[in-house]
Amino acid sequence: xxxxxxxxxxxxxxxxxxxxxxxxxxxxxxxxxxxxxxxxxxxxxxxxxxxxxxxxxxxxxxxxxxxxxxxxxxxxxxxxxxxxxxxxxxxxxxxxxxxxxxxxxxxxxxxxxxxxxxxxxxxxxxxxxxxxxxxxxxxxxxxxxxxxxx
Amino acid sequence: xxxxxxxxxxxxxxxxxxxxxxxxxxxxxxxxxxxxxxxxxxxxxxxxxxxxxxxxxxxxxxxxxxxxxxxxxxxxxxxxxxxxxxxxxxxxxxxxxxxxxxxxxxxxxxxxxxxxxxxxxxxxxxxxxxxxxxxxxxxxxxxxxxxxxx
Amino acid sequence: xxxxxxxxxxxxxxxxxxxxxxxxxxxxxxxxxxxxxxxxxxxxxxxxxxxxxxxxxxxxxxxxxxxxxxxxxxxxxxxxxxxxxxxxxxxxxxxxxxxxxxxxxxxxxxxxxxxxxxxxxxxxxxxxxxxxxxxxxxxxxxxxxxxxxx
Amino acid sequence: xxxxxxxxxxxxxxxxxxxxxxxxxxxxxxxxxxxxxxxxxxxxxxxxxxxxxxxxxxxxxxxxxxxxxxxxxxxxxxxxxxxxxxxxxxxxxxxxxxxxxxxxxxxxxxxxxxxxxxxxxxxxxxxxxxxxxxxxxxxxxxxxxxxxxx
Lengths: 150, 150, 150, 150
Known about the structure:
Four copies of one chain form a homotetramer. Chain A is of the alpha+beta class. Chain A has helices spanning about 40-55, 60-65, 135-145; strands at about 10, 15-25, 30, 35, 65-70, 70-80, 85-95, 100-110, 115-125, 125, 130.
């Protein structure tokens, strides 16, 4: 692991996942000497935003174009505690072809261990009407062509 | 709502819930002008720890007595955004009689609206062996006698 | 200390301070088994917003009326670590008569100990022009008449 | 700026600074559509820990060897708001030759702008006695030989 926290692609379960790295900080830990269970949430956010960026969709530009993506559902399962100073690898894929929802699935890993599994469901919302809208077809194609939809 | 963020009991669905209040701070919000989805996690923690305290079980003392309660599963559904300066009411109950797991269910409310629903499952762990252990019988009775197990 | 985290007034150094309480959560701690140094920042925010509210100035309404109060300077001195489950008392006063700046001074205490001392300087900004503006005279009077300006 | 958030060295003011990058996440922002003033604190932590690592001192190993480095003083000046999705460059140097204290100075920059300036003072503490201790001579030399002491 080099010091620059490289991101990249990995084959996985017949599809591909995009991964980023996060070095565990004191700020992430709690007095049980492990990562606080809520501290993984911003890691998942960074992982999915970087995944979208990688396939050509910058969330900040989507917002400016009037598409919001609030989180509507979050599920996290904690198997093994992450520890201070570990470099975590957050692997991201999409489950199900997006409709008006976009469902991400994440593995948070340290070396060969899966520490945490998570699913986050986002809703496409039209900023001008505040109402649900459908995923842009080009976004679905971009995710699909990169092998991200499992 | 008085300024002192009173906690208390409420009848609900044939059982009782214990509630605490949390005033939304700038720190909890994000640029979508709502509470960041991860900011609810510490509110849930405060709600369940205060609920246990209310029925006579101080988590800090449980830890010192050798019982740890790490979070093993978290599920959150987001219905309506919470906004800055709102006073949120976090209602806590227990679902299922505890075994080696303790399952809390939460409603995060503003006035008459349920904004967020969450479930958090904790595991009883023996600190000396780091292995799962059973819920203390007296804790189950305390929860039960207060009408908290739904 | 009752369970409801009462806030209130206290005489102090020839003036008065307004205090709120915060119960330390797991979320606030780090692996050194103390409160993470960054976790005090939202406590200071809650303390000053509740202090302003107490003297009749609701920050949320000030914003809606076009006055923003971004933080421009923060100083924190850490003397004694705060620990999990302690109820901290955050005492707030104003130092210097406000001009285009509002300077708060805080003591974060546990029982009779001052654990942390902090100063936070906010700037009055006119939301319509994004330029500095003067403190409303009525706000200065409200702070002064409550003995908050030390 | 490549996607991998490269860290590195830069000449600055007759000495050198070590920089890391941080991409601003939703989690870092607040409803004023800027980075919350407390969200910079973990960035400073990551910056100084990576700087120490770069010169051969892994903080996690220092702790295991019995040297703790709690934060005793923090000063932050906010000049320009950081915005969502910006890649911030956190530049770290040491001010004054360490004694029993280690004083870092930081510039948080976006492109050519310095957004935030901060100083963080840490105390060397002997974990076995909980008393102040002197900085290891080899650490001072490592910082000095890299041009980090300004």
